[in-house]
User: What shape does this take?
Amino acid sequence: MYRYIARRLLWAAVMFLAVTVITYIIFFVIPADPAVLAAGRSARPADVVRVRHYLGLDHSVPYQYGLFLKRLVVDQSLGRSFVNRRQVNTMIGEAAPVTASLVIGGAILWMLLAVPIGILSALRPRSLLDRTAMVFVLIGISMPVVWIGLVLQYSIGFKAGLLPNAGYCDMINPPQGADCGGPADWFRHMILPWTTFAILFTAIYVRMIRSNVMDTLGEDYVRTARAKGAPEPRVMSNHVMRNAMLPVVTMLGMDIAIALGGAIFTEYIFGLPGLGRLAVQSLQNFDLPTIMGIVVFSTLCIIVLNLFVDILYAFIDPRIRLE
Amino acid sequence: MERKLWISIAMAAVGASLLIAATATAAPSRSAKPTKAGAGGTLITELNSDVDYTDPQLTYYVPSWEMQYATACKLMNYPDKEAPEGGEVKPEVAAGFPVVSKDGKTYVFTVRPGFRFSDGKPVTAANFKMAIDRLAKPKLASSTAFLGSDIIVGMQDELDGKASSVSGVTAKGNKLTIRLTHSAPDLLARLATPPFQAIPASLASNIDPAGVNTYPSCGPYYYAARTPNRSITLKLNPYYKGSRPHNSSTIQVNVGNSLDVIYQNVVKGTTDYAEDGVNSTQYASIAKKYGINKKQFFIRPELEVDYLALNHDPGKLFHNNPQLAQAVNYAVDRHAYLAQRGFLAGQRTNRILPPGMAGVTKKTQILTNGYPISASPATLAKAKSLANGHTGKGKAEMWAPNSGPGPLQAQIVQFNLKQIGIDVGIKLLPRAQQFVTARNRAQATYDINWSAWGADYNDPFDFINILLDGSSIGPTANNNDAYYNNAKFNSQMKQASLIAPGPRRNAAYQALDKAMMGQDPPWAPQFNRLNRLFVSSHFGCFIYNPVAEVDLAAACKK
Assistant: This one.
């Protein structure tokens, strides 16, 4: 087991380096000088030189990358934004909880909906419930997240006024000047974003769980368990669900990681100050330190989640350890 | 099996009812409650994206300067009035206009007593010197230092780290003396910009390159709170005794909603002013519903011009080719070009200076006997005759932004110029990249560049000299994206810049504008943008200052 974890960790470090190097290269291939942007539109050449020096852009690209790694490892610092000069650590620290609220809340919602619907559909194939669920799946997969979000926002948030049409409230410690805060406000403001975010994944998971449960129900070991006289709840929990949910656990870990990227649309529509919106702004402004910060953070999230899933998988399925 | 079924049904019910229950119990959000009406209430505005800084010596974004107009007190300022009076610089904290030396290089201001910062400390001449000293701190690396570094004695030395303060600025009692390297009659307009506002000693000693979010200020309001990317709160300065209006007790700026949501919030009345505007597709219906310049929807000209920069650099199509530049001005369909920005986006123009600057008015926005602002067969025929024999290889490269109306506008130009025998190849770039690359002479490979310029301060120097003085062209950091370098006009620009503000200066710049456009057009000016302002039914006391834009200090709740 320890060798397995060590191998995984080593691979994670390699992946991390590869992602950051590629991001750096892409940024410097684009022929736009961030120092000119940061110096302001009326800056003179001397001003640009001064700003370039201040931003550390007057060194070679490999040297800058080395500095970036040193700062990251030694100082645990992601540097300062080119645009507003704030600490990138602080910016990510502010944005990450918002994205986490969206992704984790969305994941809970989609699992709460997908697991029972998927199981019910598998247990009652071709029933009215199953057919209705499959129609929902088709619609959920077909509709773009942006469209769902805009429709929910306009109809429920703006026209009906049942829920806030946009904005974010902190669950704890709302910032000075905020016009809302606390768990109740946070929850109300997140309902539409969660729904928007969860619909696509709910549809995918319903289909996957239904298919897995149906496949497992037909396995020999399930038939054997029943033939041995095992009670139905035990058959379902010990034999069917444990096997049917294995791929779901894997998928969940990967999807939550992917969802960090997919959150961009939902964050944009509902004005959530999360990592997605920060990433879009940074890209528009050629703000390399912030882009790198988001890449580093997202990469770490994906690596950690994948690692967690791998280890969890090894615990759930002893065959993984043996291999 | 049956038990499992019931458990599944129960779980499904919990999951599905989560939304319904939450929706049913949810009261309208706090942000949905309209603020209590009446003077002294909270004015709520919204920004789609955050400002760069709130720090007076760092900020350079338009919405931020709009807020600074409510928080700052300056030696010279623009009155809280609409154009044309609102565009004329007047003494604010200065007791009157400065005493200027005969050579125009020394200005002595007398600071009026009675102004106080929001922490109660009095404003003195030293507070203005502190601002200039801070602006030039190399560690601060301010992108607005250019507003003074080219004219104020010793400012460049401090920027270069050779001095700890600006030697050309001295404060003694209530007298502030500013010495200039050369005569610069636009100094008063420059001093009316936010970086030159009085700052307290506590801010002067804080040289954080990330800027400060809140600080005591001496205008009608001060920054009481800011959470980057979330909100900004301006509160009434309790010590303000000046004559400027200050009608709301709080100005709350919320940041981050999409333009669609901001529109919805203004319609609902939970937001009073869409500071970043709304989606351009919505203006037609807004105008239809609320009328224009009546209660909720206003249009006002910006000190801005959208133009096609015609590259005059050697080797480019318009180098020593005034006939072709004139032909392009005849050929482009300004109406179609402007239409791509949406309803009431601007007013077509054929000149460099925008209305509101140097005495240009709405009536003189279009030069008489200038280029046509409407395309017709006759104008096309004229364009063809001018272009005949001057189209070089018949090919041109045009750069335009890859978002907004840029791509469509580029296609219109492509079609128009095809009619006069020029095959335009379009290169679409992200706006930031286009802007940066066009400023680098070696990389600016275009013949035609989609461009736009808004004034930093209300003086024609900021348009004509900054954008078209060829003597300042260098390898990098060029605002002159037409790379226009006409010796005769360079000299005339310099002469015009030395004339004191007033009718003579205005006339000189207007004549220069007309002469350049007529004889050797650097650009094909297209239109001057209109600021389309959508406010809620609670928004009262609307004043649009032509330089500072919406007067937040004057705004009141109905």
